[in-house]
Amino acid sequence: MSIVQNFDLFAHKLVDKRESFCSGHRACQGCGEVLALRHICKALGDDIVVANATGCMEIISSNYPHTAWEVPWIHVAFENAAAVGSGVEAALKVLRRKGRIPDRDVKTVAVAGDGGTVDIGLQALSGAMERGHNMTFFCLDNEAYMNTGIQRSSATPFGAATTTSPAGKVSMGQKTGKKNVPEIMVAHNVPYVATACPSYPLDLMNKVEKAKRVQGPSYIHVFSMCPTGWRSASSETIKLGRLALETGVFPLYEVENGKYRLTVEMPEKLRPVSDYLKLQGRFRHLTPADIEKVQEKVNQELKKLLHKVETSKSWLE
Amino acid sequence: MAKRVGMEVAIAAAEAVALCRIDVAAVYPITPNTHIAEHLAEIVADGKLDAEYITVESEHSSISACCGASGAGARAYTATSSQGLMLMHEILPIVSAMRLPVVMGLANRAVSGPLNIWNDHSDIMPQRDSGWISFFAENGQEAVDMSIQSFRIAEDPEVMLPIVLNIDGFQLTHMIEALELPSQKEVDRYLPPFRPLATLHPDKPVSMGAYAFPDIFTEVMKVKDSVLIDSKKTILKAWDEWGKQFGRWYKPVETYKADGAEVLIMTMGSMGETASIAVDELRAKGVPAGLVKLRLWRPFPFEEFREAIKGAKVLIVCDRAVSFGGPGGPVAAEVKSALYNDAGRPAVLNFLIGLGGRDVTVENFKDILEKGVQAINKKPAGGYIFYGVRE
Ligand SMILES: Cc1ncc(C[n+]2csc(CCOP(=O)(O)OP(=O)(O)O)c2C)c(N)n1
After folding, report:
1. How many domains does one find in chain A?
2. Among the four residues A207, A233, B105, B214, which has the most C-beta atoms within 10 Å?
3. CATH number for the domain formed by residue range(s) B3-246
């Protein structure tokens, strides 16, 4: 059963009305990434400092002299959100210790797209997580470099056409599968790692709150639907997030101290991936045989995940 | 009271930085900056300095972490050399545009390739247009003094710009020198606490690093330029007060026996001392030679420079970096363009010396100065010379 049933009835009681990420920004209609960011900000509350990588979210929110951010926010470059965040975190820690800022918890948050996380930002992310800064890193994964015009990243799914992995006479688009960065984060002994999706806002917000409570590093990988880059109708954004779960394309789980757990149950009988693929122009070129291959990849990844769910144990046990 | 010590210059520089009560250090090791990185880590590990030392995984991250830390209101320091600075290159103009007063100690080293760990200035020269204030230290004492001055100048509300302090790798960093280390009390008197105008804190949220459209970008560039040019006033004031407090005086351009000199040689960094011995020896023989040392590289001290070279017939510019296929070494190119409109300007000879740690001796400087003497009243040859190159 979906956790968001009757959402309208109780959401207002559960969710902060305040928006620290304001309207007036320049995101595309139906942008899943900005929706995720809005939910994230609501769940984080005001006591945060955000370090944002170059990318869609930075560009749409900060065209000088305007800003959509009502919380302290810094942008430096594309690949270094985790490093900038490291500096912010270290500063908050030492300034608090020295009595130069008020004595209360302020969480450092880093935000980057999939490019800024899984490709060019991976080194800085690895360094920051390994050093154990008290910081939550959000990867807003729209599965390509959208800000620069839909080029492939290592988070682009198998078979998707992008401007640098186009479908052609001898190509079916992206040739590789998605790099599993949540797993890489678990391998860093990050105590809280999760996947999330704005189509499941309460699950997303619960995870954000959990991550915020960790006194140390935490990582949330947010599936962020992108009508512009996925060539889908902007009205179908939420539906695509749900289909991603219902087909097993993007399962929602969390990993607490190494223990994997599904947080939103998947249907007993998964829907075929074609239900998800057919709503998106980026998969339009796929033949039935190609779709079969995509299905196999999805099954394989899911099997790996479910195995971890069954067998993993908390390293605190 | 200040202490007279015999100390390795890199260690002394780290001690000076610690005396500045930095809040955050983010340093990645690279020869020859390593002793600065290590000694700062030791000072923090021993509890002698209450600071966060971030053991970043790269120089790109060290400068990025300094941005975050400085933005959040911390006094932030980094140090590097050569490849490390090249890796930071992308971030340097962002630091200055964001007006973050980060201070960097740069143990100058040749840039690859081929790989070479020894001293020249090919690391700093490509950063020339990054909008940072850039100082050159000539000896250990200057490395200590200017480390402390840097924080005060960088953090002055009129400035708020990052500073890079060039300390020649090995030739300076690894020398053991007699120097004076100021006391904590003296440094505290000279250097006020960092009071930034805005910081990253939820009590007063600000956005830093916004995106600029064409309608504002030119204005931002103009502001950056004006602030850097105007920073000279604050630099001069800070040096003046340093002189009053410590009795050691600093000028953007130093001269040595330049009065009445027909041939002047110009150096930056540690070579000044060697060159001065050559000048002494030539003067003793009646050769009208003198020395000009450029301490302030950015903002370029045009007035002081013109004043310093007034009356000279030949100006020899020693460059420690190559501008391949260009008009000459980067310093000579600047100097020539600075003088272009001046009537009665000296002829400029350009020698590329001390590349990748090649020794430049007193004899070499004498030889170079003699070449300058031969050029008096001759039509300048132009171009540039790789001094002592084997062909
Ligand atoms: C060093 C560097 N390389 C390339 C770029 C160009 N660039 C800016 S944003 C971007 C892609 C961003 O993609 P992603 O991180 O996935 O975020 P999205 O825009 O999709 O949210 C690229 C390639 C840059 N700004 N800096």
Report:
1. 1
2. B105
3. 3.40.50.970
Same fold, B3-246 and B253-386: yes
Span B63-95, pLDDT tens digits:
999 999 999 999 999 999 999 999 999 999 999
Q: Is the pLDDT of residue A3 over 70?
A: no
Contacts A–B by Cβ distance under 8 A: 171
A1: in domain: no
- Exposed (0-12), middle (13-18) or buried (19+): which is B343, by Cβ within 10 Å? exposed
| Amino acid at site A168 | G
Structure-block tokens of residue A164? 């640098």
CA distances from B141 to B4, B80, B275 (A): 11, 19, 18
CATH number at residue A34: 3.40.50.970
Q: Which residues of B touch A79 (CB under 8 A)?
A: 60
Tokens of B134: 């850039």
Mean pLDDT throughout B175-182?
98
Which of A54, A60, A165 is the pocket-test mutation for ligand 1 (most atoms within 8 Å of CB)? A54
Q: Please tell me the distance from the alpha carbon of residue B239 to that of residue B231, in angstroms, as a whole number.
A: 12
A102/B203 Cβ within 8 A: yes
Which residues in B lie closer than 8 A to residue A47 (C-beta atoms)?
202
Q: Which three-class secondary structure string do you get for chain A?
A: CCCCCCHHHHHHHHCCCCCCECCCCCCCCCCHHHHHHHHHHHHHCCCEEEEECCCHHHHHHCECCCCCECCCEEECCCCCHHHHHHHHHHHHHHHHHCCCCCCCCCEEEEEEEHHHHHHCCHHHHHHHHHHCCCEEEEEEECCCECCCCCECCCCCCCCCCCCCCCEECCEECCCCCCCCHHHHHHHCCCCEEEEECCCCHHHHHHHHHHHHHCCCCEEEEEECCCHHHHCCCHHHHHHHHHHHHHCCCCCCEEEECCEEEECCCCCCCCCCHHHHHCCCHHHCCCCHHHHHHHHHHHHHHHHHHHHHHHHCCCCCC
For the packed helices B9-19 and B34-45, what is the interaxial angle rounded to 10 degrees? 40
Note whether residue A5 is domain-resident. no
The domain spans of chain B are 3-246, 253-386
Strands B24-26 and B52-54 turn out to be parallel
Q: How far is A208 from chain B (nearest CA, A)?
A: 18
Comparing CB atoms, the residue among B52, B57, B213 nearest residue A123 is B57
Could you give the CA distance from residue B346 to residue B332 in angstroms, rounded to a whole number?
12
| B347-388 residue pLDDT tens | 999 999 999 999 999 999 999 999 999 999 888 778 999 999
Instruction: Write down the pLDDT at residue A68.
Output: 97
Report the sign of the C-alpha dihedral through residues B86, B88, B93, B95, in that order: negative
Distant-in-sequence, close-in-space partners of A85: CB < 8 Å, separation ≥ 6: A51, A108, A109, A110, A128, A133, A135, A137, B68
Contact B182, B151 (CB under 8 A): no
Residues whose beta carbon lies within 6 Å of some atom of ligand 1: A 33, 54-57, 78-79, 112-116, 140, 142, 145-148, 153
CB contact under 8 A, A72 and B76: no
Residue range of the domain that includes A155: 10-316
- Domain covering B253-386, topology: Rossmann fold (3.40.50)
How many C-beta atoms lie closer than 10 Å to residue A131's C-beta? 20
Return the pLDDT at A1. Answer: 43
pLDDT at residue number B52: 98
